[in-house]
Amino acid sequence: MTDKKGKLPLILDGDPGHDDAIAWLLAEASRRTDGICDIRAVTTVGGNVSLDKTTYNALRVCTLLGIEAPIAAGAPHPLTADLMVAPSVHGESGLDGPALPEPDRDLSDLTAVELMAKVIRDSEDKVTIVSTGPMTNTATLLLAHPELKSNIEQISLMGGGLGFGNWTPAAEFNILVDPEAADIVFRSGVPLIMAGLDVTERALLEPDDFERIRDVKNPVSDIVWQWLEFFYKFHKKLGYEGAPMHDPCAVMALIHPEIFTFEDYYVQVETGGEYCRGATVADRRRVMDKAPNAKCIMNLNRDAFADYIFEGVRAYG
Ligand code: BDR
Ligand code: CA
Q: Which CATH superfamily, name and number, covers 8-314?
């Protein structure tokens, strides 16, 4: 976490995705207003939809949001498993809903892992990775470049859940897609901030919040409003009272940590198991002789969270 005085060099690694896009908006809005976030790279991974779609979406989202960092495509599929996608949540394009601008920039010639390595190696300050999709790129980076670990400040990730899953009773989508990658990340020794379902399912934007955003009437507000409407339509059928802002929690925890409660645990990823593949198992009773490897976010001030997303949208003029 930042002390809010220094800059926070960031790599945004995700599979956009409505909530990934809103997470990235928060980071760019912070760059524009308080100057905390400094986005050095955007990298994509196959997850919500295939890699070609998440990469196209990343180019369109960065065009819309004015994120000027290089963008590189990453892993098309998990380390060992077949790719599992989620069109029921995000639509066939991975970002269904409003029309988006066509990309006004090119993809980097580097792969995601090459770009991540270059950014981390060249940075004077330690770099934070914000991971909002399957952790395939990050795990590959850590395996290929263990020497760079010392220049990674932390990995702030949306994934898992200590109490429950969303794609199976035990597993959350991002971890379930690539448990082997998540296992490498959780064992890496790099400090982790884990925004799991425990908090992200409480980070609901409600219809009143959507309207407040729609009424901002700036170059991004109408699109964000329509993203929220689209994302909520799926969740409403499941009984949610708002749209769960899973991925924005991973950025918000860096720029407004004071609105969250954290508990430190040793967390392991289940890679086998008949029922529990992809589960994130936390040693909450401290029965293992292991130091915590993750700051797990357990709860939040929902109203403050909604206000800060609103402020993020307002940062666009
Ligand atoms: C996660 O899965 C994806 O559908 C979302 O973008 C988020 O990263 C929530 O389980
Ligand atoms: Ca995501």
A: Ribonucleoside hydrolase-like (3.90.245.10)
